[in-house]
Amino acid sequence: xxxxxxxxxxxxxxxxxxxxxxxxxxxxxxxxxxxxxxxxxxxxxxxxxxxxxxxxxxxxxxxxxxxxxxxxxxxxxxxxxxxxxxxxxxxxxxxxxxxxxxxxxxxxxxxxxxxxxxxxxxxxxxxxxxxxxxxxxxxxxxxxxxxxxxxxxxxxxxxxxxxxxxxxxxxxxxxx
Length: 176
Hints:
30% of the residues lie in helices and 27% in strands. The chain has a seven-stranded mixed β-sheet, with helices on both faces.
């Protein structure tokens, strides 16, 4: 089953895409967007997670600036639009929004209790911030830009964290 849910947080209400597996209750994964919003790619990731037996929820991280952002990764104007949103995004408020999403999912009767956070780009950074500030059962971050600026908070991490980071071309050190 696919659809939308509303996350009610202390700062306001915002939408999230929801994909449920056939067998419930199930563990959950909160999926955090890139700068393109909760677009077709993020919804597809949620649908695939649901097919694998997870409840998948993708909150609208840009709801404070522009609710319902759904941009294409192949459109230059969409890239520019997403970059403008990214540049003024409030990361502290965003981490609270992810925490509110995790708490909402945990209260769903169909949730088996375990909740992971998985994010891409902006979502990768927000995965790290949520894990170190508020705690989750597990976290996976892909290309979390600017994560290095928050490494001083790593002592708050008490869950498994898997980070995927791109190589820097000539900037990497050869360890062979």
